[in-house]
Design a protein that fits this description.
globular; mainly alpha; 283 residues; single chain
């Protein structure tokens, strides 16, 4: 029975990928819908905050998903066990520098106490453990299983677009769990656009793990900046300078807001240039 089911699922990669996504969607939704705070009624829930108590649950998610992939025999198809193309690793450097810059700006604008609390060793270790598990689960699911399902049926670009859209849409589980609908919609759009970068990086490196690491670092940076800002003492007041309409300021804001998809397009172009160069050398 098990071999028959596995053969049936393996022969239908797209249907299997969608089935796996739906199963994990239910894993998030079913416990949440019974709460009185569901459907946007949890005022304490926000996009940039994390619950460290969710670490065991995220470990369960990542562990079961990797187990499913191994059972299906899709470790290479999902880029789970393929060796990274090390030349593509350099594409990780600009995002890491960018994240470091944003975190440094947050630290410079905060009080000493809020920074020391946010950057405590115990909190950082717990946060990194959680975000690494989240990055592993989400990249394995969307840039691994979902990407392969659409790639097997259509093309790389369709797989990149579809996996990004589904990745973004999956974040509506946060609204079902209590987060404000408008805030969640913004998170859905941002996550969907970020999928361009993670998908392109998976293509260029041939592995989901560089994207999982970058995903972990991005979530860590966003969470730390939000935490530093929330812990900022009331006597630390930022000087508000109105620069509305200034083209330089608006340009910088645009780049910061859309860095992931913009840089993702650069990585995607780099991937096709790399493939073309390899084909020329082989020919």
């Amino acid at each position: 029975m098990g071999n028959t089911l596995r053969s049936w699922l393996r022969s239908r990669p797209l249907a299997t990928a969608l089935l796996v996504v739906f199963a994990y969607f239910l894993a998030f939704v079913v416990p949440a819908v019974s709460s009185d705070a569901s459907l946007g009624h949890d005022a304490a829930r926000h996009a940039n905050t994390v619950d460290l108590s969710q670490t065991p649950f995220e470990l369960l998610l990542a562990g079961t998903l990797i187990g499913i992939i191994i059972w299906l025999g899709w470790t290479r198809q999902t880029r789970l066990t393929t060796r990274p193309a090390w030349g593509g690793i350099w594409y990780m450097v600009p995002p890491i520098l960018f994240m470091g810059g944003l975190l440094l700006i947050g630290i410079m604008g905060a009080g000493e106490q809020s920074v020391s609390i946010s950057l405590s060793v115990s909190y950082l270790a717990a946060l990194l453990a959680l975000t690494l598990l989240v990055g592993t689960f989400e990249e394995t699911l969307f840039r691994g299983v979902v990407f392969y399902g659409f790639e097997a049926k259509w093309s790389l670009l369709v797989a990149l677009a579809a996996s990004s859209v589904l990745f973004g849409a999956m974040h509506y589980v946060n609204w079902i769990s209590g987060q404000d609908f408008a805030e969640t919609t913004g998170q859905v759009v941002a996550a969907g656009l970020s999928g361009i970068l993670y998908g392109a990086l998976a293509l260029r490196t041939g592995s989901i793990w560089p994207g999982a690491l970058l995903h972990c670092l991005w979530d860590t940076m966003v969470t730390l900046n939000a935490r530093i800002s929330a812990l900022r003492p009331p006597d630390v007041i930022d000087e508000a300078v109105s620069l509305d309409g200034d083209p330089v300021t608006e340009g910088i804001t645009f780049v910061v807001q859309y860095f992931e998809p913009l840089y993702g397009l650069i990585v995607l172009l780099g991937y096709y240039w790399w493939k073309r160069s390899k084909a020329r050398r082989a020919g």
